[in-house]
Structures are given as structure tokens and as C-alpha cells.
Automatic annotation (TrEMBL):
The lineage of its organism: Bacteria, Bacillati, Actinomycetota, Actinomycetes, Micrococcales. This is Probable malate:quinone oxidoreductase. Keywords: FAD, Flavoprotein, Oxidoreductase, Tricarboxylic acid cycle. It is an enzyme of class 1 (oxidoreductase). It catalyses: (S)-malate + a quinone = a quinol + oxaloacetate. The keyword Oxidoreductase applies. Its cofactor is FAD.
Length: 474
């Protein structure tokens, strides 16, 4: 998010002075790391939590369409970066990869058919395919079909034109380009404090290597610190952060170490979440492209830790509690006992049980060919709720001060895939006087700017063809 915002501002206002401060020694090592996130290029093609069934069994496609619209904007931004040589070859961060949903049993199969029928008429989903034929599924993803009981009802939906995105690589390339174009990039620098200073802000920054501290004055501050954003926005003391809390969820993945197995799978296969599971715990058997090399992973297995980042302190959760957010946090704890039970069950799950979960999606899997790795931390948003006292939110929340001089991002999914439209929206809120003058440039960067592609199939076809060509996705 920070690299995207910096890149946009640099193009809209090249004369502005920009500084970036990153606690770690390289960009994209926390939430953006390919081993710390799902990396799907979230476009709601296969993620079933964006199309939950209603009580009557119907499926509303609106949320999936909205997320796909956002990713189309992001794709155009990527295309612009590649065309203007602000990042390297497209294959260094984005690759074509089919997206597939796979379910087991009558109830889930009926739901997936209903979902397919709800999405298929829409322009953004007109390529979706659906089948309950095991041989067809085998042609799509052999590992999922081989060794499966033929009497078991299964169903799959697929969009062959999906993508895999290495957000770590993309973040590093955008950051390198910012540094090359005059942005002051500071790695190994931790922001320790944010205080209002007249119409702007004074930041206290610590050099991790020398322990020296300095102050930096800024007219505008964006806090794109993943799980660390809540604490920094609380330190800023803005009214808009009051009532917000965070609930951290950790996770693990199984990563395949056998190249012969990896070579047999070329897709992202998403299933249904367990009862009580948070959305980012939806099981998926994923081909990944990391540093140009194809990999295979399965998971995630949810867990719990009180730190808000992989590299931060176990005191993060208790230190985030404030008088203004304790009631929402207690209310969420009371109303989400199923989530608590799920996390306890996941934490206690043995390696053998983890392997059993893998075999639901890859029946012939053998555990010795898979290593267990730790995934990234996700801090789910807790906010005030007039009726319940507090609500747990699984989306992305942008917090902006009333005067627009500071803004930050809380939450997770769909996250990085929707970074471009989220940051454009932020620019509109924080720089209303300048924004109208930027729109012609935004139109150059995003050819469909201001238009809903799902409602304009001809423009969608035109934009897709161009971005596919530049990003080598066709």
C-alpha cells in the first residue's frame, strides 16, 4: 500500500518531497512477502467467502463484482508501471494461473452451482466454467482428482485467466524506483512516535543500527505498517481511531519440497472455510511463483499469537487496549466464541491432522514431501457497533483524520490486490483541492478510470486485451 501510494503521488506531483521509513532492512518482507499472504491477485474468481450463500440458498454476486472491478484497476496500474519501465519485466511479479473453486458433498456442490449461475452472466466473470465431472477436474488439476473416491460428489468452478502475484517482488521494485526518482527511502528505521505539529506532524524515527533518533516533519503521513498501523495511529491521537481495536490471527502453510509433485499442479484451488474460521483461513492448494521459481503450498492452518507482525512484540495486543476500545473488544470476544473455539482447535492440531487436511484436496499426498512454514500475521479490525457494542471486520479499513493530514490502513483481505483503487480513494479524501487536477493523469494511468467495467463489456474487453498483452498474461 505504501509503495503504491508513493508511486502514485510521485507521478501526480513529481515536485513533492516524499520520505519512506521501513523498520526492516528491505521492502516487502512482512505482509507483502509471498510466503506471508495468499498472493491470488484477489479478483473473487475462486474465493468463496466473497459470495456467501444467503439463508434461502441464493448467491449475491455484488461483492465479488466489486472486488474484481478493483483488481482490474490494479492490473491497469501494473501495466502502466511495466510500460513506463518503473518496474522490471511483468513475469518478475505477475504470472498467468487458473483460479479454481473445489468443494465436496451435496450441499457444497449445490452452492457452487448456484454461485456459478449468479456470476456467469456478468462481463467480469463470463469466462467461468463449472463441472461435477471428475475427469474434467482431473484435466484441470490432476492432484485434486487422482485417487479420489468416484462415488463422492464433487464440484469445481474455474477461470483459466487468473493470476498469481508476488507482492513482495512488486513492492521491492516499486520502492527501488521511488529511490531512483528522488524519494528518501530509509530501511532499518522505526517510527517511534507521531505527534501533531501545527497543520502537520512530527515523527520520531529511530535508526535500528545506530540507535540514534531524529525528528521528521511532514504535512501528510500515511501509515502503511500492516499490523503495526493500529499502534501508530493510536500514538497520533486522532479522534477517528477511537473505538478501533485489533485481533491477531497467525497461520502456517505446508510447502511442497518435491519438484515432481510441484510440476503436476498449475492452479490456485480454493475450498470452503471450516465453521467458525476467519475468511483468510479458507483452505487452498496453490501454485506460487516466488523469485521466478514455481512452488506449491497448502493451507493456511490458523493459529493465535498476540504480536501484530511476525517481527514485532508479543505485547502488541495488550498494549493496543485503550479505554475507548475495550468495550468493542470485549463484545467481539463474547460474540465470536466459534472463532475462539476454531483457533484453539487449530493450535492443538497435530502434524498428522494437518496432513489429513491436505489430503482432502490432494488425496495422494504424502506428508514427508511437505515442510511446515510460518505465514504472516493478520490483524482483523474490531470496531464499535451501535447494536452489539463491537464487531469483528474481515475486510480492509482506511482510517483518515478529519483534516486529511494523516491516514492509515487496518485489516487484511483483499488487501494488496486492491491497493491501487484504495490509494486513489485515499488521495481523493486527503487532497480534495488537488484531486480534480490529477484526474487527467489518473486517466492515463488507469484507462477505465471512473467507469464500471462490468457495466461496459466492450471497454472491459479492450482494457483486458491491452493489459494482458503488456503483462504477458494472454
Amino acid at each position: 500500500m505504501s509503495a503504491t501510494l508513493g508511486t502514485l503521488i510521485k507521478q501526480l506531483e513529481p515536485g513533492w518531497s516524499i520520505g519512506l521509513f521501513e523498520n526492516l532492512d528491505q521492502a516487502g518482507l512482512e505482509s507483502s512477502s509471498p510466503w506471508n499472504n495468499a498472493g491470488t491477485g484477489h479478483s473473487a474468481l475462486c474465493e468463496l467467502n466473497y459470495t456467501a450463500a444467503a439463508a434461502d440458498g441464493s448467491v449475491d454476486p455484488a461483492k465479488a463484482i466489486g472486488i474484481n472491478e478493483q483488481f482490474q484497476v490494479t492490473r491497469q496500474f501494473y501495466s502502466h508501471l511495466v510500460q513506463n519501465k518503473q518496474v522490471g519485466d511483468a513475469s518478475t511479479f505477475i504470472n498467468p494461473l487458473p483460479h479454481m473453486s473445489f468443494v465436496i458433498g451435496d450441499e457444497h456442490a449445490d452452492y457452487l452451482k448456484t454461485r456459478y449461475e449468479a456470476l456467469k452472466p456478468h462481463a467480469l466473470f463470463n469466462e467461468i466454467e463449472h463441472t461435477e465431472d471428475l475427469d474434467t477436474i482431473k484435466s484441470w488439476t490432476p492432484l485434486v482428482a487422482n485417487g479420489r473416491d468416484g462415488s463422492q460428489r464433487v464440484a469445481a468452478s474455474r477461470v483459466a485467466s487468473g493470476t498469481d502475484v508476488d507482492f513482495g517482488s512488486l513492492t521491492r521494485q516499486m520502492t527501488e524506483n521511488l529511490a531512483a526518482t528522488g524519494v528518501e527511502v530509509n530501511f532499518g528505521h522505526k517510527v517511534k512516535g507521531i505527534k501533531r505539529d501545527g497543520a502537520g506532524w512530527t515523527l520520531t524515527v529511530k535508526n535500528n543500527a545506530t540507535k540514534a533518533k531524529r525528528t521528521v516533519n511532514a504535512k501528510f503521513v500515511f501509515v502503511g505498517a500492516g499490523g503495526g498501523a493500529l499502534g501508530l495511529l493510536q500514538k497520533a491521537g486522532i479522534e477517528e481511531i477511537k473505538g478501533f481495536g485489533g485481533f491477531p490471527v497467525s497461520g502456517q502453510f505446508l510447502r511442497c519440497t518435491d519438484e515432481t509433485v510441484i510440476d503436476q499442479h498449475h492452479a490456485k484451488v480454493y475450498g470452503q472455510a471450516s465453521v467458525g474460521a476467519p475468511p483468510m483461513s479458507v483452505p487452498h492448494l496453490d501454485t506460487r511463483f516466488v523469485n521466478g521459481k514455481r512452488s506449491l503450498m497448502f493451507g493456511p492452518y490458523a493459529g493465535f499469537s498476540t504480536n501484530f507482525l511476525k517481527t514485532s512484540s508479543l505485547w502488541d495486543l495488550p498494549l493496543s487496549i485503550r479505554p475507548h476500545n475495550i468495550i468493542p473488544m470485549l463484545a467481539v470476544g463474547k460474540d465470536n466464541m466459534s472463532l475462539t473455539a476454531y483457533l484453539i482447535k487449530e493450535v492443538l492440531k497435530s502434524r498428522a491432522k494437518k496432513d489429513d487436511a491436505l489430503r482432502e484436496y490432494f488425496p495422494e499426498a504424502t506428508g514427508e514431501k511437505w515442510e511446515l512454514i510460518t505465514a504472516g500475521q493478520r490483524v482483523q479490525v474490531i470496531k464499535k457497533d451501535a447494536k452489539k457494542g463491537g464487531a469483528l471486520q474481515f475486510g480492509t479499513e482506511v482510517i483518515t483524520s478529519a483534516d486529511g493530514t494523516i491516514s492509515g490502513l487496518l485489516g487484511a483481505s483483499p488487501g494488496a490486490s486492491t491497493a491501487t483503487p484504495i490509494m486513489i480513494g485515499l488521495l481523493g479524501r486527503c487532497f480534495p483541492k488537488q484531486f480534480s487536477g490529477w484526474e487527467s493523469k489518473l486517466k492515463e494511468i488507469i484507462p477505465s478510470y471512473g467507469v464500471k467495467l462490468n457495466e461496459n463489456p466492450s471497454l472491459y474487453a479492450e482494457v483486458r486485451a491491452e493489459t494482458d498483452k503488456v503483462l504477458k498474461l494472454a
